[in-house]
Amino acid sequence: MSLLLLAMGLTLLGGLQALHKGPGDPNFDEKLVKGKWFSVAMASNEPKFITKDTDMKFFIHNIQVTPKSLQLHVHRKVKGVCVPTTMTANKTGKKFQYTVNHSGHKKIFLEKVDPQHFAIFCTHSVKHGKEMMVVNLFSRTPTVSPDVLWMFRKYCKTHGIHSTNIVDLTQTGRSLPPRPPVGRPWPWGP
Ligand SMILES: *[C@@H]1O[C@H](CO)[C@@H](O)[C@H](O)[C@H]1NC(C)=O
Ligand SMILES: *[C@@H]1O[C@H](CO)[C@@H](O)[C@H](O)[C@H]1NC(C)=O
């Protein structure tokens, strides 16, 4: 029985991840995702990730691209307080796929991107045999056009996430960074 479940879980895992095609242009230069971003929406097949302040709910501020990784500078809400965190997403042998060890092992896929406007990243993690997906929409501006939101909804739908499991992060109290101590710049610049 458990073997059967395991087999089903693995098939599902392969199935969901196989849906990731990466950016339309296979020669897209991932270095272009560097710089300042805003979290405008997120979605998940696991409701608690979007309703609660779990480690999966974060607000992006900046991405640095190094030869071996993407450094995601984010803020998370921990017990109501904003905490800056850096997540290192190591590059893998596969293009536009990264691994991160942040509260467990996760795989991150860069999916759709228009480097001047938006980027969609999809994160997969497995807990107790259940595969959980979180999709993030980052924008270069604090809000996005209806076209981009529509595209994001469509992306979520194609990946099995119901529209009720999408949250607009521009409306639900963006996690503002706490004031840096006087005289100290932000750790990742303006
Ligand atoms: C990412 O790379 C660093 C340095 O090579 C390594 O220490 C770390 O374990 C890696 N993390 C993951 C999740 O593979
Ligand atoms: C992931 O992080 C945990 C706890 O920090 C550590 O024990 C584990 O070795 C790390 N795994 C990898 C692949 O880096």
Automatic annotation (TrEMBL):
GO terms for molecular function: small molecule binding. Belongs to the calycin superfamily. Lipocalin family. InterPro entries: Calycin, Lipocalin, Lipocln_cytosolic_FA-bd_dom, Maj_urinary. It is found in: Secreted. GO terms for cellular component: extracellular space. Residues 177-190 have a biased composition (Pro residues). It holds the Pfam family Lipocalin. Its main location: secreted. Residues 35-172 form the Lipocalin/cytosolic fatty-acid binding domain. The keyword Hydrolase does not apply. Residues 1-18 form the signal peptide. The keyword Signal applies. Gene3D superfamilies: 2.40.128.20. This is Lipocalin/cytosolic fatty-acid binding domain-containing protein.
